[in-house]
Input
Amino acid sequence: MSDQISKRIAADLGLPDLVDVLAEKVSGADLHSLMLAILKRRVAAMNSPQLNQLSAVTKTCDLDARLLNKVECLAYETAIQFEARELSPLLPLGAVSVLTGLDQGNVLSTVRAFECTADPTVSLALECSKRRKSIVDRKETVRLCTNQRVVRFPLPQHPDYTAHFKLFSMVTSGRDSGSFAFEVAALKEHIGFYLDFLLNLQKNEFAFTDIVVEISDTRAVAHLCDRFKIDLDQIKSVVRARDSSSAARVIDQYENTWPKIVTKPAEELASYDLPAHLIGQLSLLEEKIFAPLQVEYDHVKFQFNMQRLTGLAYYKGPCFHIKMKNSLGDDFMLADGGFVNWTQQLLADKKERLMTSAIGTELICRAFRRK
Output
């Protein structure tokens, strides 16, 4: 859409190569100076009443800040194994797009080569890479957490979702230790944190019912997409995390043949020609994560979701959702996490592993407070 708009503007101005000139033939520093000069001229023509024309990204949060702070404090108290850090509200321009592959239009870019934070785990990943810059530094596992307000585009339509909101996010950065051991330990630790956090919230003024932990694996789902001849670019253009029905629209025609909810991967996925190592790793997650957590959290349902199409290009391997209902019976996906290759990119080291996750602390306050 932005490409079409820029082409129209260039055509209207009679400058068909305008975007190419600005993007490729003007230096970064000169472009920033040019944009700043344009903004200064526009601002000079503004008056005070115009500042009252607020948008979704500038509206004040309508929740009691003390309530948000209470939830944030409970999260920090629960994440006792993670070092808590306060992040800058800005990232280097292109950080989200370069590392995650997401469109630059999803973030709020500035004219000074920065972008407003849309994903705190990207900032935490950059911090991990700084701490793990030398080989000696990479021997220790780094665990970081933060609670931060983020801005995201496109703007949401659901009343419980807002253009800017708070997320509690965590990362675990370490080395491949063989036998899928790091992945199992980090995934179990993150899921365990969120379940403990929900229990602590329930002791206060929040209510959650029908809690479900769903693990998926982007590699296994990609194999299924290939088997059923579904184009991954089509998925990326259609499926949206905030639209729970978008994935179903893509795979509805395979409803009777595509596996959906699985509890015993070795048995239930045997006929789908998935690579043996993926079946083995899913079975290991069943044994090392689902089984022990089910004993500790007997009120929670644990399962594999083989139809999760969100995050296929974002996560690299195991990922999870934690879903539940509020006291009104409304369904929400509250926590999301998985493995990414960002520290591998930043450190040029294929042995690096990074587990990221986040939960909507503001969404908790909006949708799960006891009435």
